[in-house]
Amino acid sequence: MKKPLPILAVTITALLMGGVAAAQTAAPASDQLYRAFGEKPGLVSLMDDFMVRLLADPRTEPHFKPANQQRVKEQLVDQLCALSGGPCVYKGADMKSSHANLDIKQSDFHALVEVLQASMDARGIPFRKQNEMLALLAPMNRDIIMPK
């Protein structure tokens, strides 16, 4: 039986598509979350799995197949690293700019969250830590989803 999405899961979709300006200000004061995700090697492994799953899922594949997947993965690693209290610095575009012309809908966002959750589960990241990361990503939702 599939585990229900956490309430904060909607947050994570924002992360997956680039940009982090809003989230950098909400980074935790300690590196506990960064360590819980396995530090940089753990984040790289998580994003490797995530990109494979994004491209395999028919709901998310159309958004990621045309992208430079290596660059997207590297930016996501830097974003998650910075958000979780790690030493990385995200230097990519902000969420609003990077998603402005992508016509991302709420359903696209939810699909991405499901895929990310599957990757975090596969990496053995505790549910509580997943929600902590999602809470840091949540503010990005408003800059990613296109208004109706």
Describe this structure in words.
With 148 residues, the protein is mainly alpha-helical. It has one domain (11-144): Globin-like (Orthogonal Bundle), CATH 1.10.490. Helix content is 61%, strand content 0%. The chain is built from ten helices and no strands. Helix 1 packs across helix 9 and helix 4 (39-56) packs across helix 8. The protein is globular, with a radius of gyration of 14 Å. Residues 1-25 have low confidence and may be disordered.
What is this structure's SSE topology?
Elements (H helix, E strand, L loop, with lengths): L9 H7 L4 H4 L7 H5 L2 H18 L4 H4 L4 H15 L11 H5 L6 H17 L4 H11 L3 H4 L4
Helix pairs in contact: 1-8, 1-9, 4-6, 4-8
Q: Would you tell me the overall average pLDDT?
A: 79
Cα(first) to Cα(last) distance is 33 Å
Main sheet characteristics: none
CATH superfamily placement = Globins
Listing every helix as H and every strand as E from the N terminus to the C terminus, the arrangement reads HHHHHHHHHH
Number of domains: 1
CATH architectural type: Orthogonal Bundle
> How many H/I helices?
10
The helix/strand class is mainly alpha
Strand tally is: 0
Helix content range = 55-70%
Determine and state the CATH class: Mainly Alpha
Give the low-pLDDT segments.
1-25
Short account of what is shown:
The protein has helices at residues 10-16, 21-24, 32-36, 39-56, 61-64, 69-83, 95-99, 106-122, 127-137, 141-144. It is mostly helical and 148 residues long.
